[in-house]
Specification:
about 210 residues, elongated, mainly beta, nine-stranded antiparallel sheet
């Protein structure tokens, strides 16, 4: 089987609208803690994507003109099977539309404890919905928390917790990240995951250069 990838002369111009709004709250009065809450929405039309060949094959009913098959053999015809795929056109295409919405929440602070500067931070992102309409005649496909071979999907929940410490010429940083589970679709999926990273570094003071 051969596949053709790259751009296409038949692409339309992408259009889209986005909205976001939120608030920042400082707690308490000394402003050591800051709470941020934002909501967002997006709507795109004719979004340009570069589909993988497997995504075209998995959705042959929507992209029949992009798949070329050989004539079925007598054995295939007897069993009602189509001929084998000989080529797939997976050049760039326009999706009919994408829309989504979600909420972002963050809390971070900064204060000193025994001459050590601490900067804790927690961030959470929740995808309320991410809906894709592949073609004008296709049904809406929910991609929030649903893995898909065309690459357009997102976990419903992501989070990061971190802590930075600083004193004199010493710095340390520790972070933990969380991604919620994807539901598998057509054999693809990603389990719930957590990961942690950390680093430790020393800062050297800038040399004191004086003239005599």
């Amino acid at each position: 089987m051969t596949s053709t990838s790259g751009s296409s002369a038949d692409l339309k111009t992408e259009t889209g609208r986005t909205f976001s709004g939120g608030i920042d709250v400082f707690l308490p009065s000394d402003r050591r803690w800051q709470l941020s809450l934002f909501t967002w929405k997006l709507k795109q039309s004719d979004r340009v994507v570069f589909p993988r060949a497997q995504a075209i094959v998995d959705n042959e009913a929507l992209f029949a003109t992009r798949i070329t098959r050989a004539a079925p053999t007598p054995a295939d015809a007897a069993r009602g099977f189509p001929g084998v795929i000989t080529s797939v056109d997976n050049t760039a295409i326009n999706l009919a539309g994408v829309r989504g919405s979600g909420i972002d929440l963050s809390l971070h602070g900064g204060f000193n404890v025994m001459d050590v500067k601490l900067t804790p931070m927690v961030r959470v992102a929740w995808i309320r919905d991410l809906v894709v309409k592949v073609t004008p005649s296709a049904v809406d496909s929910q991609r929030a928390g649903m893995a898909n071979t065309d690459g357009i999907f997102a976990p419903k929940l992501k989070g990061t917790a971190s802590l930075a410490l600083e004193r004199d010429y010493f710095e340390a940083f520790l972070a933990s990240r969380y991604i919620s589970r994807y539901h598998a679709r057509r054999g693809c999926g990603l389990a719930r995951s957590m990961s942690s990273t950390g680093c430790l570094r020393f800062r050297t003071p800038w040399p004191d250069i004086t003239s005599t």
